[in-house]
């Protein structure tokens, strides 16, 4: 991992927006290239880590690094415009400059996933934190068994990474099950209709030698964990990420804790066993 | 090594430090309020009063710039803050409750990532502690393991003496240097008698019992009645010598501005408010629970200490009269009750 070489731990690296991709009407991907040559060469991260992204004049926002560590030379973030910083980030165009601090936090234990079947379960805008790992695994495809992706959103329009969903669908070595909430399907919808936990139950992946990686809004996680339990997944076979409001990302500013666990330092990746041991405050 | 310094010589010491260009921060009155502030001359010092806010601002200011930015077309230039510009500082008249909080903050700002803003100021600051001879109803330092004569956190520790002046004990190399460089102002101790120490409320609660209850009772009906009065004003965090939560915000225009680190408080609803609208601590009692938990459990779990030094400021200032010492005492009692029930 490349630790920030700045002595000032709050000083971001500058990055140029290389590409802007609209995922949904209000969710956008920015592809970023670090301006400093040394940073460009030395910045490395692991799937699951996050960063603080700056729109100067508005502030910083916390998102995962949504691209895969296997794709070198750039990083991507993906966000919904809902506040002051994300509205400003949305105004950025190719060639514009923004700031990036990171990478921070822990990561998925990818080495421990080697040789296993993987089931990715994501809802809505929570696909990006899994997409980094999905591509990481697909780029090392031989190291894993079967790969299943269950992804859903409220409506067709709310599905992110639509082109990549198509790509995964067309690959012979991935099983993609896509779904939208009842009423979210248009006439051209060729996927499932139903909430993610229901569709996961119907998909019924075997828990044998399998790791499940779950990311979604709190309500989805709440209903998904019991489904996995029913499918005989042990709590140490299930990984998820927690997201909390953060400022520093460095274990200092004091707001992202769940009980005595700091999401920014001890997370954001946790096993279901770890999450169940936490107080219900996320 | 113990030395004596008269009040007159102590003032001369501070004036000499000021004339050397050092920042001498001590309790002084500003618009009717005693605060730790830089002195222009030692005579302004009000050493016999506990300042409204703690001494932590000498290292961790209420607001501070952490960088500036300048935009030119699509390009942006960032200007780092040079920590070497921080002045050599002497922080004076720090009571044991304030001084003991400083090592507590050291742990936060130096574990893992190093906050150079805090640590550089810390490195450049000599702390002159002062034994406490006045307690009021809000003081409870003795209940959290301190005493009014605890020199923890001080580089040089003063004990006020009958008839004026102080007995001085050096506690670190910084303290020794301060005395060695100003030898002529210090005298040999000669039968001076210390003023009687303050007598804060003691033994109101047992920290270990409180911690044991907190360990097991994140969910408990008692939380609904604890601090329901809290209005979330954050005053307790702002006057606390150990609270250290902060926000990072940009101030300026699209063209230029600065990024600042500002004090924040877990009592504010926005502190944990997600962009999605979800808030894990969506009600005031949950926010107050975090305050108690952080101080008497979470910080202890991580750093093996309590995040409270019993200065009592939060009790004195709370606009709705919440008394953290009373709450801890109540928790202490709940624990006793539970144990009795279990044993019967």
UniProtKB/TrEMBL annotation, chain A:
SUPFAM superfamilies: Ferredoxin reductase-like, C-terminal NADP-linked domain, Riboflavin synthase domain-like. It comes from the Bacteria. It holds the Pfam family DHODB_Fe-S_bind. Residues 10-110 form the FAD-binding FR-type domain. CDD domains: sulfite_reductase_like. Keywords: 2Fe-2S, Electron transport, FAD, Flavoprotein, Iron, Iron-sulfur, Metal-binding, Transport. Its cofactor is [2Fe-2S] cluster. This is FAD/NAD(P)-binding protein. The lineage of its organism: Bacteria, Pseudomonadati, Thermodesulfobacteriota, Desulfuromonadia, Geobacterales.
TrEMBL record, chain B:
Residues 219-251, 299-327 form the 4Fe-4S ferredoxin-type domain. InterPro entries: 4Fe4S_Fe-S-bd, 4Fe4S_Fe_S_CS, Helical_ferredxn. SUPFAM superfamilies: alpha-helical ferredoxin (SSF46548). Keywords: Iron, Iron-sulfur, Metal-binding. PANTHER family: ANAEROBIC SULFITE REDUCTASE SUBUNIT A. This is 4Fe-4S dicluster domain-containing protein. The lineage of its organism: Bacteria, Pseudomonadati, Thermodesulfobacteriota, Desulfuromonadia, Geobacterales.
């Amino acid at each position: 991992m490349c630790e920030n070489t700045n002595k000032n731990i709050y000083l971001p690296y500058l990055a140029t927006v290389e590409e802007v991709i609209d995922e949904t009407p209000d969710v956008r991907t920015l592809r970023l290239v670090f301006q400093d040559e040394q940073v460009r060469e030395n910045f490395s991260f692991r799937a699951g880590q996050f960063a603080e992204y700056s729109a100067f004049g508005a502030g910083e926002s916390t998102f995962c690094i949504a691209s895969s560590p296997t794709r070198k030379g750039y990083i991507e973030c993906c966000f919904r415009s809902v506040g002051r910083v994300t509205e400003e980030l949305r105004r950025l165009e190719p060639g514009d400059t923004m700031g990036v601090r990171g990478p921070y936090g822990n990561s998925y234990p990818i080495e421990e996933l080697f040789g296993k079947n993987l089931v990715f379960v994501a809802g809505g805008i929570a696909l990006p934190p899994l997409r980094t790992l999905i591509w990481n695994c697909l780029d090392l495809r031989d190291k894993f068994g079967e790969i299943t992706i269950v992804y859903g959103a409220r409506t067709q329009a709310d599905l992110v990474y639509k082109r990549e969903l198509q790509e995964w669908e067309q690959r012979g070595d991935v099983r993609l099950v896509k779904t939208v909430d009842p009423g979210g399907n248009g006439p051209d919808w060729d996927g499932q209709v139903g909430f993610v936990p229901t569709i996961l139950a119907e998909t019924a992946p075997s828990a044998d030698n399998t790791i499940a990686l779950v990311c979604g809004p709190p309500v989805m996680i709440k209903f998904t964990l019991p489904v996995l339990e029913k499918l005989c997944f042990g709590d140490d076979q299930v990984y998820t990420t927690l997201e909390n409001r953060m400022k520093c990302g460095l274990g200092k500013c004091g707001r992202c804790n769940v009980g005595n666990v700091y999401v920014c330092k001890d997370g954001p990746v946790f096993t279901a066993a770890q999450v169940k041991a936490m107080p219900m405050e996320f | 090594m113990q030395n004596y310094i008269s009040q007159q010589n102590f003032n001369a010491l501070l004036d000499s430090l000021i004339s050397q260009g050092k920042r001498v921060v001590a309790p002084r009155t500003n618009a009717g309020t005693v605060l730790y502030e830089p002195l222009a001359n030692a005579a302004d010092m009000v050493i016999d009063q506990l300042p409204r806010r703690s001494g932590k601002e000498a290292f961790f200011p209420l607001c501070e710039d952490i960088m500036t930015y300048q935009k030119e077309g699509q390009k942006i230039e960032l200007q780092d803050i040079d920590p070497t510009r921080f002045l050599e500082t002497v922080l004076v008249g720090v009571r044991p409750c304030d001084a003991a909080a400083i090592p507590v903050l050291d742990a936060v700002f130096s574990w893992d990532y190093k906050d150079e803003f805090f640590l550089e100021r810390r490195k450049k600051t000599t702390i002159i502690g002062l034994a406490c001879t006045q307690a009021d109803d809000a003081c409870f330092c003795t209940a959290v393991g301190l005493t009014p004569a605890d020199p923890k956190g001080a580089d040089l520790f003063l004990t006020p003496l009958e008839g004026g002046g102080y007995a001085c004990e050096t506690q670190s190399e910084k303290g020794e240097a301060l005395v060695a460089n100003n030898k002529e102002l210090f005298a040999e101790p000669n039968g001076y008698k210390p003023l009687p120490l303050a007598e804060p409320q003691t033994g109101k609660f047992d920290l270990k019992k409180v911690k044991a209850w907190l360990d097991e009772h994140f969910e408990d009906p008692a939380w609904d009645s604890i601090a329901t009065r809290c209005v979330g004003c954050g005053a307790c965090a702002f006057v606390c010598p150990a609270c250290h939560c902060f926000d990072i915000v940009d101030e300026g225009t699209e063209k230029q501005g600065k990024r600042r680190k500002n004090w924040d408080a877990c009592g504010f609803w926005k502190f944990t408010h997600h962009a999605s609208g979800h808030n894990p601590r969506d009600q005031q009692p949950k926010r107050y629970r975090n305050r108690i938990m952080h101080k008497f459990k979470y910080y202890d779990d991580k750093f093996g200490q309590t995040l409270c030094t019993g200065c009592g400021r939060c009790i004195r200032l709370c606009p709705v009269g919440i008394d953290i010492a009373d709450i801890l005492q109540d928790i202490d009692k709940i624990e006793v009750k539970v144990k009795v029930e279990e044993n019967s």
